[in-house]
């Protein structure tokens, strides 16, 4: 039981960190592909580039960049905890 808990905690921390680090790369790629619609200004996200593309892509997910970071981190933590608990051997 203790090993599964440790595996879940380590998985949660690792999963959250990985997702938060990967989000600024993955979300702009989705935006550039046209999967996230339009920015708040009405401009298609797929036509943007650089920081504007990153900001608009992140904001398109939850409405704010901070909200997107939190949502991505929580999703990564939950997925990481599940994987960490499932791959930890029984004591």
Specify the structural class: mainly alpha
Query: What gross morphology would you assign?
Result: elongated
| Continuous helix count | 3
Overall mean pLDDT stands at 88
Tally of DSSP β-strands: 0
**Main beta sheet, described?**
none
Quick synopsis:
With 91 residues, the chain is an all-alpha fold.
Task: Give a structural overview.
With 91 residues, this protein is mainly alpha-helical. It has a domain at 47-91. The chain has helices at 2-32, 50-62, 65-87. The N and C termini lie close together (7 Å).
Please specify the SSE layout and strand pairing.
Elements: H1 2-32, H2 50-62, H3 65-87
Helix pairs in contact: 1-2, 1-3, 2-3
Brief descriptors of the model:
elongated; 0% strand
């Amino acid at each position: 039981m203790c090993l599964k808990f440790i595996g879940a905690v380590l998985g949660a921390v690792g999963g959250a960190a990985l997702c938060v680090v990967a989000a600024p790369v993955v979300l702009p790629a989705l935006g550039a592909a046209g999967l996230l619609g339009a920015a708040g200004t009405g401009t298609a996200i797929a036509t943007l580039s650089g920081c504007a593309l990153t900001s608009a892509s992140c904001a398109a997910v939850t409405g704010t960049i901070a909200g997107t970071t939190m949502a991505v981190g929580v999703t990564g933590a939950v997925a990481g905890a599940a994987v960490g608990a499932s791959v930890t051997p029984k004591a």
